[in-house]
Amino acid sequence: MTNIAILGSTGSIGRSSLEVIERFPGRFRVTTLTAHRNIDLLREQVACFRPDTVVVSDERTAEALRHHVNGHTAVLTGDDGLIEAVTRPEVDVVVSALVGFAGLTPTLRAIEAGKDIALANKETLVVAGDLIMRAVREHGVRLLPVDSEHSAILQCLQGEDAKGVSRLILTASGGPFRDMPWEHFSGITPAQALAHPTWRMGSKITIDSATLMNKGLEVIEAYWLFGLPADRIEVVVHPQSIIHSLVEFVDGSIKAQLGIPDMKIPIQYALTFPERGPSVSKRLDLVSLGTMTFFPPDMERFRCLGLAYQALRAGGTAPAVLNAANEVAVQLFLAEKISFQDIPGIIEDALAGHTPLMEATLEDLVRIDTQTRTAVHQRRAVVE
């Protein structure tokens, strides 16, 4: 029996993870659930899975939740509660599905406590890739990607010699604005940006997909997971979202992983790795699909992708600044305080004002994240 802690159990990845776990009642047990705002759903999850521990954001929420759980379930709060929950000895695997920078510290502490990680929080590697991968090696744990793109690459690499890899090719749906003329971008509303044509995700990730920043973050993540330099990690737009990524080898052969757009497939692969278990997910019908198309991303219209490559090449703490500025810009856009077109400019300004620190501690990264967010808000206040 593998004991699993799910960070962000009420989000889309968390919910899908619980669906996968339900399919394997003799193999997995949920020991920990965490949530931020959706306490009603958390109560339902607690009633269904009876975890040892739940973690919520504050004591007021915790007190309300304690009235709805039995004495077997401990209710913890805040960042300290997250860290206590993921480092408990009974936990074997942590599904890291928190959104944004918030996922970094509990994921790192879980690794240091010897827990395997199913990583859905791409910002963890974007911000602290060197720190995280050193900890993975030092503590001898497995870090398995849950993102469909990186799961696809992992699957394509099974049985292959890493020396034979020529390049990695990440696919992108292109988001809802891939065919929209640039002159219309100024009128894009949050509601339009949240209408992703293929995937159903949380609001932050959906906006990142619309700007192609999500793909830029995945390029940085791929760099840390698979050890190839930026110039050997490419992005192609594939609107059908059937091929989730490809690996090209030195002999010119290309492997691709195909499947319907369903996050339960890569989640299950991460949890059962290296085995494959049966799935009830819909099967891909190639005949009905008919045609798949590919074209290069428009780096002029979708500047966030280029900024991610810029930050990766700059190295050090530049990706941490990229991430912090992007998170603030997305929040401002969703609050209708800036336009969709303003997002890349905010990130570009933040990168331009930063001199990367090449060997950063966790404390350095937390400080730089805070400083970047403060600077972005201050610049916005001056503009307004």
Model description:
- This protein is of the alpha/beta class and 384 residues long.
- The protein is built from 16 helices and eleven strands.
- The strands form two sheets. It has a seven-stranded parallel β-sheet with strand order 4-3-2-1-5-6-7, with helices on both faces. It has a four-stranded mixed β-sheet with strand order 9-8-10-11, with helices on one face.
- Strand 10 (243-249) and strand 11 (254-258) form a beta hairpin.
- Helix 6 (123-139) packs parallel to helix 10.
- The protein starts with a strand and ends with a helix.
- The mean pLDDT is 93.
List the helices and strands and how they pair.
Layout: E1 2-7, H1 12-22, E2 28-34, H2 39-49, E3 53-56, H3 59-66, E4 74-77, H4 78-86, E5 93-96, H5 104-112, E6 116-119, H6 123-139, E7 143-145, H7 148-157, E8 165-172, H8 190-193, H9 203-211, H10 213-226, E9 233-237, E10 243-249, E11 254-258, H11 264-272, H12 286-289, H13 303-314, H14 318-334, H15 342-352, H16 362-383
Parallel strand pairs: 1-2, 1-5, 2-3, 3-4, 5-6, 6-7, 8-9
Antiparallel strand pairs: 8-10, 10-11
